[in-house]
Amino acid sequence: MNIRHYFFALAALLLLNGCSAPNVQDYAHTQPKLDLFTYFAGHTQAYGQFQDRSGVVKRRFKVAITGTVNDDVLTLDERFVYDDGEKEQRIWLIKRLGDNLYSGTAGDVIGEAVGHSAGSVFSWRYTLDLPYKDSSIHVQFDDWMFLQSDGVMLNRAQVSKWGFNVGEVTLFFSKAQP
Fold it and tell me: I need a surface site. Which of 34, 35, 85, 166 has the fewest CB within 10 A?
């Protein structure tokens, strides 16, 4: 192999390595340990925003979440209020499939969301049918939640279409006070 082939092979390897996504198991040692069903049981509130791919904030919102657990199913009733006054509701049915493995459905989710947890982290991927102008588009979410102390959880979701970055959703959750 000549030096030019070696250089291109090394560059390709570094490029592919730079594109690799984190693995949920990388967080297995982190604390506090997140139990998704325990965390979302009852009332939770969230505040968030959507930034486009250049980082410009396009929408801000608040979410009131009510979670109920019935055996191995968590139902999340999410009620969004956007900064322009628009309201939206999404109801998730999240099933615990086994140790640290989950699936979820909602009315505007195409197919099933697939999720994994380890330590203080939960990650899942899904396709959302998102209203857009007079129609809708299907976008992919790569959603990561990081539990902090005192009941605060940070959420970062990469949003893409056809593999291209569309933007990012940033949220923080806190347990609502009774």
Answer: 85
* pLDDT surpassing 60 at residue 16: no
Residues in the chain: 178
Q: Above 50 in pLDDT, residue 17? A: no
Of 153, 147, 145, the C-alpha closest to 173 is 153
**151 or 108, greater pLDDT:** 108
Task: State pTM to two decimals.
Answer: 0.85
80-112 in b/e form (b: 16+ CB < 10 A) is beeeeeeeeebebbbebeeebebbbebebbeeb
Res. 102: pLDDT tops 50: yes
Return the closest-CA partner of residue 38 out of 144, 157, 122, 142: 122
A 10 A CB-CB count for 115 gives 23
* 24, amino acid identity: V
User: What homologous superfamily does CATH list for 29-175?
Assistant: Calycin beta-barrel core domain (2.40.128.20)
Ranges of each domain in the chain: 29-175
